[in-house]
Amino acid sequence: MEINELEEIDKTVKGWLRESRDNVLRNIDTRLTVSTKTSRRDLVTNIDKQNEKFIVSKIREFEPHARILGEEGFGDKVDSTKGRVWIVDPIDGTMNFVKQRNHFAIMIALYNDGIGELGYILDVIGNRLLSGGPKIGVFDNGQPLTPIADTALKDGLIGLSGPMVLNNEFNMVDIAEKSLGMRIYGSAGIDIISVLRGELVGYISYLKPWDFGAGKILCESAGLKMTTIDGKQLGMLSSTAVLLATRNAHRDVLTIVGK
């Protein structure tokens, strides 16, 4: 895709996100309709659904022939990376949204034939937008992202999945102990923003495409590494344990995982 086209799409998506954020904030203190999906910890609300319907409708109007992969199922059945594919997570961190009314994000990504073109992660309450891609660069609230220091695991904090630590999957306890400390935020989007801003050296969790689609584009554009937990290439449609980190911390984690 050409720069002019990407810049036009970028401007349009930022408009959707502003409107989407306004919609969420307008309804955040209303009585939520909450239901479970796969377990009592996997929630969906009426706001998740409304927000996804809104974003999907905007994409349909803007690009009718594109396919859309949305967490709540209002897009298309996407089983290949061919053509234009949008990935939408209307509320990332729904448990946080329900219980805290904080620490949740809206995420949108655009892929073209499997190549990440543009990614967006909006911290709704913090009103912080990480956006961009490999051709236009990565921006933090409209300003070029500050270069990320290549910090080692031992010198930084790391975001980890609580259940993975409790079950010591992939030697998560050792990873936590080798770092300066672990943080559990409960939202992939918030964790990814923290890595992009240099607040964390990495993040590990089981993720689905809507959890990492935008982050993969932004992080790789910013020089970070995002792979499967064992260092293999992460496909756009993967659902697996994901390792995001600085290059040094990534190498450190793989050494521990491989023990």
Q: Any descriptors?
A:
about 260 residues, alpha+beta, 2 domains, EC 3.1.3.25, Inositol_monophosphatase-like, five-stranded mixed β-sheet, Inositol monophosphatase family protein, single chain, D-Maltodextrin-Binding Protein, domain 2, Fructose-1,6-Bisphosphatase, Chain A, domain 1, about 25% strand, about 35% helix, magnesium, seven-stranded mixed β-sheet, metal-binding
What does this structure look like?
InterPro entries: Inositol_monoP_metal-BS, Inositol_monophosphatase-like. It comes from Lentilactobacillus hilgardii (strain ATCC 8290 / DSM 20176 / CCUG 30140 / JCM 1155 / KCTC 3500 / NBRC 15886 / NCIMB 8040 / NRRL B-1843 / 9). It is an enzyme of class 3 (hydrolase). Keywords: Hydrolase, Magnesium, Metal-binding. GO terms for molecular function: inositol monophosphate 1-phosphatase activity; metal ion binding. The chain has two domains: 3-144, 2-Layer Sandwich (Fructose-1,6-Bisphosphatase, Chain A, domain 1), CATH 3.30.540; 153-257, D-Maltodextrin-Binding Protein, domain 2. A hairpin with a 4-residue loop joins strand 6 and strand 7. It has helices at residues 3-27, 46-62, 94-99, 162-166, 172-178, 188-196, 209-221, 247-257, and strands at residues 34-36, 43-45, 67-70, 84-92, 105-112, 115-123, 128-133, 137-140, 143-144, 157-160, 181-183, 202-207, 225-228, 240-245. A seven-stranded mixed sheet has the order 3-4-5-6-7-8-9, sandwiched between helices. Strands 11-10-12-14-13 form a five-stranded mixed sheet, sandwiched between helices. The chain is 36% helix and 27% strand. By secondary structure, it is an alpha+beta fold. It starts with a helix and ends with a helix. Helix 1 (3-27) packs antiparallel against helix 2 (46-62) and helix 6 runs parallel beside helix 7 (209-221). It has eight helices and 14 strands.
